[in-house]
Amino acid sequence: MNNNLPADSIEAVTSGLASAGYIASRQIATAVYLAERIEKPILVEGPAGVGKTELAKALAAWRGLKMIRMQCYEGLDEAKALYEWKYAKQLLYTQILKDKLGEVLGGAETLSGALDRLHDFGDVFFSKEFVEPRPLLQALEQPKGCVLLVDEIDKSDAEFESLLLEILSDYQVSIPELGTVVALVKPTVILTSNGERDLSDALKRRCLHLHIGFPEQKLEERIVESRVPGISQSLRTQIVGFINQVRTLDLKKLPSVSETIDWARVLVLLQSTELDHETVKDTLNVLLKYEADIETTMPQVTTFVAKAGRQGVFG
Amino acid sequence: MREELHRFFRAARGAGVRVSPAESIDAMKAVADVGFGDRGILRDTLLLTLAKSQDEKQALGECFDLFFSQPEVKEEETAPEDAAESAQPDAAAAGNRSGDAGAPSPELGELAQMLMSRDRNAIAAAMANAANAAALSDIRYFTQRGIFSTRILDSLGIERLRDDLDALTATSPAEAERLAAALAALRENVRDVVNQALLLYGREESENLRHEILRNAPLARLERRQVEQMKALIRAIARRLRERYSKPRKRQRRGHLDIRRTLRRNAGWGGVPFLTSWKRRHRDRPQIVAICDVSGSVAQVSDFFLLLIHSLHEVVDDVRSFAFSGHLIEVSDILDTKSPEAAMSEIMSKVGFGSSDYGGSLLDFEKGWIRSVTPKTTVIVLGDARTNNLDPRADILRRISERSKRLVWLNPEGRMAWGWGDSEMPRYAAFCSVVRQCATAKQLERAVSDIVAAYQ
């Protein structure tokens, strides 16, 4: 779709991401722009549901590149992330090629002679043929480049982080039997973290650090507008106004952008044109995921709706 | 501009953002790409490349605003000069004269000419040069303000200016008055510049110094304003300990060959050990029982100790705390559910401020909670062991010690005082695994660190 040259201005990034349905703030656009320019991965941190993963998807869609996603979890290791030898295939081939091997080695007089011939094969069984590429290696082998999303890196073990370092800084992987695999086209790497644990300094140093927080009211309205077509301007303003007030409460989990979008969709489905506190009370469970949070918010709903309503009129 | 960026990196380090050379190279590259045109974008760029956490971003953002607000300060500084000027009776005349800027008598020195012609840009540039010449970015402590101001003024050419001023006073007093006013404004200016530099570059050092003093200050005799700072310090210590000990380390978990299990697993192959089983070294999660004296002089230390131990949730998931002076109560729930301040005041209202009765309190503990002490538990007693000449009941402490993994006694008093007066420390010490002095934040950190490390 698009050419693979880096965008030539921050505005171009903003509009490009917007064309893929992602409304980016200036910080986000700057980060993406710089990531392409100085070829560095972006480490995105922020609360759940503010669009960290979405950024990678939008970037891939805009660039017309493949997105390779690697979901991290505890116990993720080299074999699942980088590459693995196809053991079964190796075994099968040695069985099938047994006769052939016999032929080749048959001519040799002595054991050392046979060994020499065997060496001449090179490492047939440890060649590219038998490597099962996992997401990280796949990302390096894409001929057109790709967007590599390493999702929720904070969930993985500390050892896995160190494994990533080589890829992140040099875009290459060392496989002991094969040598070093260098990226054909350097992929755009996006790492996301929910801050469950602190990442190592070595990893952070190699990345641009982007923190996505809750968006400003205006921006969030635009996000809702692009994500929920057919929503009226006034309802949109009211929804966002209401949610911004909910965020001022002391809750276990604050509603984030994804919840705003879900809620807006629900309200559109219910064909509401205005926020009224009955509907809000009925649909509050879309917004808040803990019983305790709903209990805290319930008594405030009427005030919030009234305030949001006023904003809808004047804003 | 590169020079400017380098100074900004230094300032960023001063603000507590760790900027490594590699990061500064990245930042340089990035800045070369986005240019200096838009301050907002420049700010974003530096924040993206240099700061690596939310806290750092905030610190760096503030630092950026401070750093790049410098030129504005310089313009402001000329304002009082103008004001002083217009307040003069001959203001109108002066105003007119400022039009013909070249007018000042040629025998004046460079600086005097600049001041007389009120050429803001030239003054600002001269000031920046002088600041560079004086290596202003090396400023670290507030005591250095004077010397840096003098240096800057010297390199601006204050000597010559004084001579000029003397000469002018003799020839035209009005001019001299004007110059004197301008000089006063200039001094003010320099002072502002130095103050800002101190704010930018000196923060880290003075912060370190302040921390060092705070860490070694006796907890029991803190001033009111230090208490807040100490709480922040204790939180920082808790964070450090959490980071260090919350990750279960994998190494050395595998122990000796488990012969019984290996034989059983391989029974199918006639006892030929294809699969081996290894004994795993068992690692206990820390269990802590803290018994704190909250009477009089020890109260403050207990306060900080409880604050610390209860903010270590990730590392120590099983803490039971007890507080006593005249009698003993369990305070774990109070500490877990309330804010530190509310919790401490509630504890104090329940048991605090009495004269301490160690024997009675130990008896209370044995009656009510001795079962909470298991062979995995570390029991920590925090107190000065001053029993007011009541029965110390060291026998109960012996029984607690026998039941527990370790018994640690933390005493806020210095070793010299142990055993003097009504202190029963030597009698108790016989049954403790470790007895430590624990009077400052530093000692507190070491004590808690050692206790947690024993479980690693």
Structure notes:
Chain A has 315 residues and is α/β, with parallel strands linked by helices. Chain A folds into three domains: 10-78 and 139-211, 3-Layer(aba) Sandwich (Rossmann fold), CATH 3.40.50; 83-130, no CATH class; 217-309. In chain A, 51% of the residues lie in helices and 13% in strands. Chain A is built from 16 helices and nine strands. In chain A, strands 2-5-8-1-9 form a five-stranded parallel β-sheet, with helices on both faces. A two-stranded antiparallel sheet of chain A has the order 3-4. Chain A has a two-stranded antiparallel ribbon with strand order 6-7. In chain A, strand 6 (172-175) and strand 7 form a beta hairpin. With 456 residues, chain B is of the alpha/beta class. Chain B has three domains: 2-68; 70-207, no CATH class; 287-453, 3-Layer(aba) Sandwich (Rossmann fold), CATH 3.40.50. Chain B has 21 helices and eight strands. Chain B has helices spanning 2-14, 21-34, 39-50, 54-68, 70-87, 91-99, 110-117, 120-133, 145-156, 158-171, 173-201, 203-215, 224-245, 259-265, 299-310, 332-337, 340-351, 358-369, 394-403, 425-429, 441-453, and strands at residues 254-257, 278-280, 287-293, 318-324, 328-330, 377-382, 406-411, 434-437. In chain B, the strands form two sheets. Chain B has a six-stranded mixed β-sheet, sandwiched between helices. A two-stranded antiparallel ribbon of chain B has the order 1-2. In chain B, a hairpin with a 3-residue loop joins strand 4 (318-324) and strand 5 (328-330). Chain B is elongated. The model of chain B is unreliable at 71-104 (pLDDT under 50). Classes of the chains: A alpha/beta (315), B alpha/beta (456). Chain A binds chain B through residues 10, 26-27, 30-31, 33-34, 37-38, 40, 45, 158, 197-198, 201, 204-205, 208-211, and chain B through 18, 20, 22-23, 26, 29-30, 33-34, 40-41, 44-45, 47-49, 51-54, 57, 243, 247.
